[in-house]
Amino acid sequence: MALTISLVPQPVSIQYRQGLFQIKGLPPIQGDEVFHREIQVFKEQLQQNYGGIEAGAAAKIRCSKDLSLSPEAYRLSIEPETINLYAACGSGIYHGLQTLRQLILSEYRDGLLPLPCVNIEDHPRFGWRGFMLDTSRHFYTPDCIKNLLDALSLHHINRFHWHLTDDQGWRLPVPSYPLLTEIGSRRKNIKIPHHVYTGAGFYTEADIQDIVAYAQARHIEVIPEIDIPGHASAILACYPGLGCTGGPYQVEDRYGIFEDVLCAGNDAVFDFAAACFDALVTLFPSQYVHIGGDEVWFNRWNNCPKCQKRLAETGLSTARELQSWITVKLAKMLADRGKTAIGWDEVLEDTETYKLPKEVVVMSWRGSKGGIEASGLGHPVIMSPNSEGCYLDYKHYDAPEEPGNLGVSTVYQTYTMDPITPEMSNEAAALILGGQCNLWSELIYADRIAEYMTFPRICALSEGLWTPKELKDFDGFAQRLEVHQKRLDQMGLLQYRGYLGKTGKKRNN
Predict the structure, then answer these.
(1) Rounded to whole angstroms, how far apart are CA atoms 403 and 94?
(2) How far apart are CA 314 and CA 410, in angstroms?
(3) Which of 312, 296, 294 is nearest to 386 (CA)?
């Protein structure tokens, strides 16, 4: 057995000691009652891979409370006879158990688990370590989402940004707007001409509650997104009166950016938004709701009498400025419901008259520029730059046979993305919540392809956001990844294996 251990993300501190912990079978686990849920999930995870832990055996893993630790921190001590895990609360215990799960996945062989004696001290660098899944362009089943959530939690990812609406499909039930799921969840299949989806193209309230509970048990916060006022084709196909022209509209079977958006001059749009927000408040306990705000075209507003009237009422001079007026109004509606709005970095634009409320979180996707600007203005920021390895729909490397879309995001780029840039002052840097990878699904036609596009780039992101900057080392990560990907194999995850992006050479499988 190797004398060292390979973990992803790399912990803050690993100190090796004399001795070896060795047990036949899997180690029984007990802990303080407050950690019952985390211990139960851990047992279920081992059950899935190995058939579980021997019942009734004396505990070899002990989970105990240590209030001196920060909320997500843990301390792990592997001794010859016992494994002791300490944390202040459930999130820390869960992260520690996932570290143990990694060790079991790589070291448990032929019914025997040998581990070197070590002391591990660990805590995250950033509080927001996120992954976004686009379920509009491709409808991922609840089971697929839960499988991804479980794998993400192995890497201490703690935010799941759920992109529920776009031009190509609406996936959220809103009781007072039933056509959203009756019509807006279905479209022509662009792969099969003249075929229309007839299956379940949306998530029921029970589906959402199940997924949220599953994520919560793994200490992942689920942040829903409904994208408005642009990317609204699915909305307009159901309720054409919310558009500037009245239609006709359709749930789009093409990809791109479309002219038709929600009408800025129609007060019914805000009645619609209120109903959506009320549904989100009921289904999602998260502090945050993502309102989109990206890629809005303004041609319809320029030519719409209602929108021109709205310009006069608000004292604005250009149609572009109406988006800032809408964003401010939506953010206030969410604040009244106890929620904080997140928007893509376009929400920073044309805000001279209607200032973006300071509490609105900006998600910087068009490179790092938006995050630099937003943090300088006093906004909380999540870094997700498409140009720095955070877009998982991009190819792993530039080759015609490689699946992907629009660009290249190598593992190296993902690893080296840092949410805090050299341009930021200390005050601005303090506003950086963390970072996130996004999987847009225009060309991701199957759940297994989604796995391939996600792993191992999300592994690289997890280390980039968890491990202290001074300990980050890509060469060391690449070596540990060789061990780690065998763990992911045991979990049945399809993975990319090839060029990591630093040397320019393909890695041997």
Answers:
(1) 34
(2) 46
(3) 294
Are 204 and 189 a contacting pair, CB within 8 Å?
Answer: no
Please list the residues that pair with 29 across neighbouring strands.
Answer: 61
Q: How far apart are CA 212 and CA 190, in angstroms?
A: 31
What local confidence, expressed as pLDDT, does residue 184 receive? Answer: 96
* Closest by Cα among 243, 444, 436 to 344: 436
**CATH class of domain segment(s) 13-122:** alpha beta
* Cis-peptide into 400, omega within 30 deg: no
Domain with CATH 3.20.20.80 in the chain: 125-139+358-509, 170-348
CA atoms within 13 A on the CB side of 272: 24
Contact 327, 359 (CB under 8 A): no
> What confidence score (pLDDT) does residue 226 get?
98
Considering the domain delimited by 170-348, tell me its CATH architecture. Answer: Alpha-Beta Barrel (3.20)
Residues 6+ apart with CB under 8 A from 368: 383, 385, 388, 421
Q: What is the pTM of this model?
A: 0.96
Burial profile 164-182: b = 16 or more Cβ within 10 angstroms, e = fewer: bbbbbbbbbbbeebeebbe
Residues marked active site are found at 166, 231, 295
pLDDT of residue 56: 56
Residue (of 436, 384, 386) closest to 407 by Cα position: 386
Least confident piece of the model among 228-232, 326-330, 462-466, 501-505: 501-505
Give the SS3 label for residue 328.
helix
Please report which confidence band the pLDDT of residue 417 belongs to, taking 50, 70 and 90 as the band edges: very high
Does residue 509 register a pLDDT over 50? no
Tell me how far CA of residue 312 lies from CA of 13, 96, 225, 318, 352, in angstroms.
61, 58, 31, 10, 16
**Fold that domain 125-139+358-509 belongs to in CATH:** TIM Barrel (3.20.20)
